[in-house]
From TrEMBL:
Keywords: Hydrolase. It comes from the Bacteria. GO terms for biological process: DNA repair. InterPro entries: HAD-like_hydrolase_sf, HAD-like_sf, HAD-SF_hydro_IA, HAD_2, HAD_sf, PGP-like_dom2. GO terms for molecular function: phosphoglycolate phosphatase activity. It comes from Azospirillum cavernae. NCBIfam families: HAD-SF-IA-v1. Gene3D superfamilies: HAD superfamily/HAD-like, Putative phosphatase, domain 2. This is HAD family hydrolase. SUPFAM superfamilies: HAD-like.
Length: 227
């Protein structure tokens, strides 16, 4: 440990929490509203992590940009309505709290970089009593989404951490590509929405199989970088 500031920057959906069923439900409601039938759940899981309009565009490439925006708005409304009715379940993955505790005990700052809206992220963190634990919260509301490096760069600017002192933790190739584009290290997690082989091919520096293994992988990469 060098005394220099260090940051573990977590993805949310598929990394901290399992939100796939809530996401698929809201996307299905949006498609039905627009007469599109129902989306393939597997395809919906594939786009988790992208900013919302980009995710809809990936699912509906033959539709116009205006339609993408309209479906995205319907998705947001459907998700918000489900949350108001108490129907949204986004449980933490096993072992995640242990890793958050271990990283904080080691003096590592915690942050989030997610394709989720700020409203949605705030709701998740509040639900699990985690709001106070993250010092920087980056969402695609405020600029380009993954795999653009912008969210990492904003997090570094907010925390004063150098590139060598940050590790991105995520479950999709979008997370790993974002980290590579920002020239920072990354840990891929096996329990999310993209395959481990895809995370490895995208350039993840480490792969972990359990939530409690995240802290060790992050600390190992930081030590390797002299942090």
């Amino acid at each position: 440990m060098t005394g220099l500031p260090r940051l573990a920057l977590f993805d949310c959906d598929g990394t901290l929490v399992d939100s796939q069923f809530a996401i698929i439900d809201a996307m299905t409601r949006a498609w039905v509203e627009h007469g599109l039938g129902e989306p393939d759940p597997a395809e919906v899981r594939r786009i988790v992590g992208l900013s919302l309009v980009e995710a809809v565009a990936a699912l509906l490439p033959e539709r116009s940009a205006a339609e993408h925006v309209a479906v995205a708005e319907s998705y947001k409304n459907a998700f918000a309505a489900s949350r108001r009715r108490g129907e949204v379940d986004e449980p933490l993955f096993p072992g995640i709290l242990e890793s958050l505790d271990a990283l904080e005990a080691a003096g590592v700052l915690l942050g989030v970089a997610t394709g989720k809206s700020r409203r949605g992220l705030d709701a998740v963190l509040k639900e699990h009593g985690l709001t106070h634990r993250f010092v920087t919260l980056q969402t695609a509301d405020a600029g380009p989404g993954k795999p653009n490096p912008h969210m990492v760069q904003r997090a570094l600017a907010e925390t004063g951490v150098a590139e060598a002192g940050v590790v991105v933790i995520g479950d999709t190739t979008y997370d790993i590509q974002m980290a590579r584009n920002a020239r920072v290290a990354s840990v891929g997690v096996s329990w999310g929405y993209h395959l481990v082989t895809e995370l490895e091919a995208a350039g993840a520096n480490r792969i972990v199989q359990r939530g409690r293994e995240v802290a060790g992988a992050v600390l190992g990469l930081l030590e390797k970088n002299g942090r």
